[in-house]
């Protein structure tokens, strides 16, 4: 086998590989001998089939096997001889081959860059932290009480007020035509909850049991269904009943209904839960600032093949967002070329940061243990109360799904490792500051792993997945 490097441009390497016809013939004959030991052909004992018959019957398929093996071996030899670390699978192209002649092919490979890590202990970071105020506990208690409140039927002539519930049938129409999702019967709507289209609930104030009303509204321009966005609609509404809310007392009975001993135990549990939420937000901000610093201190060429894959995923999400009527306001008015340049920059940053984190993990022998995987599966299961066993079964039976947990686990372990070395100090902030999206801060362009809004633009999703 003859391997010759034909190109070395930055991270790109290209080789020409020649495997002689004699080597191929030897491999084919050796493989045919192996086949002949096991095949059964009428008139011949196993292992006694003439080579001519084996070649005629199996020669074509064996040649295919040999060629595939030879190409793989050639690519492997080229990479190992030059001590390369491929970023992606090599691209192989057969340039010349006919049976009885030499096999010639090229191997194009993009390598991982040498990453010179900064002195991680020199990192200085501030972690924003906020105290859990008593008001936050009270608000959480009130939300629980509201979720468990009951209603009693109001008197027949009682006019519905804000905060009360109306039980209604409704049928929505646009231009006189009913639309999907615009019909319901026996629906309980709490007036003032702002769960319906703006203006809908206000037009039912004062309604009484037995009333029929036509509610006229305009769907918001940013409404999720593009077929309805910005359009005028009329709803035929029949009020069956008005129900008055019976307030839930904030007492020990409320706590016992939730499986806790008393109200104080409930308050303690709520405080701990809110503290965990705040801690998650603090870590998100700290991680974003860490990524910013790592990006600032590491500048090196990145494999464009990896950037292409990352960009394609981001652009695909952007196109999906557009189709669903979700466009980042910052992107409005920009040409596709401008957007592609911007998003490609995001993709390149993500790849570079990924390589930095990977190098930190490699040099410091950071590995994922079975315990790490078990903990991750457990965390996933907690997201689906009552269906935990189904989640466990899913990961037990799906190796790809289990392996998909490895990358985020590895990233978090590397982040933890760096934070242990860095100089991190707490900075007291208000809750409003803690809840701000760091992407909105001009001083910070990195993003954390949490994607707080349910619907985010492609840019936000791309930044959030760094």
Structural notes for this entry:
The chain has helices at residues 21-38, 51-81, 134-147, 252-257, 263-297, 304-323, 336-363, 370-382, 388-397, 399-403, 406-421, 431-435, 458-464; strands at 2-9, 12-19, 91-96, 103-110, 124-129, 150-153, 165-174, 177-190, 212-218, 232-246, 423-428. The relative contact order is 0.11. It is 45% helix and 20% strand. The strands form three sheets. Strands 6, 7, 8, 9 and 10 form a five-stranded antiparallel β-sheet that branches. By secondary structure, it is an alpha+beta fold. It folds into three domains: 2-110, Alpha-Beta Plaits, CATH 3.30.70; 150-246, Roll (Chitinase A, domain 3); 261-464, Trigger factor, C-terminal domain (Trigger factor, domain 2, Orthogonal Bundle). Helix 3 (134-147) crosses helix 5 and helix 6 (304-323) packs across helix 7. The longest helix is centred in the middle third of the chain and has 35 residues, at 263-297.
Keywords:
Chitinase A, domain 3; 466 residues; 20% strand; 13 helices; elongated; Alpha-Beta Plaits; alpha+beta; 3 domains; five-stranded antiparallel β-sheet
Quick recap of the structure?
The protein is an alpha+beta fold and 466 residues long. 45% of the residues lie in helices and 20% in strands. The chain has three domains: 109 residues, Alpha-Beta Plaits (2-Layer Sandwich), CATH 3.30.70.1050; 97 residues, Chitinase A, domain 3 (Roll), CATH 3.10.50.40; 204 residues, Orthogonal Bundle (Trigger factor, domain 2).
CATH class of the largest domain: Mainly Alpha
* Secondary-structure element series: EEHHEEEHEEEEEHHHHHHHHEHH
Could you list the spans in which at least 5 consecutive residues all have pLDDT below 50? 441-456
Q: What's the Cα radius of gyration?
A: 33 Å
Number of helical stretches of at least 4 residues: 13
Largest sheet: 5 strands, antiparallel
Helix content: 40-55%
Distance between the termini: 43 Å
Strand content: 15-25%
Number of E-type strands = 11
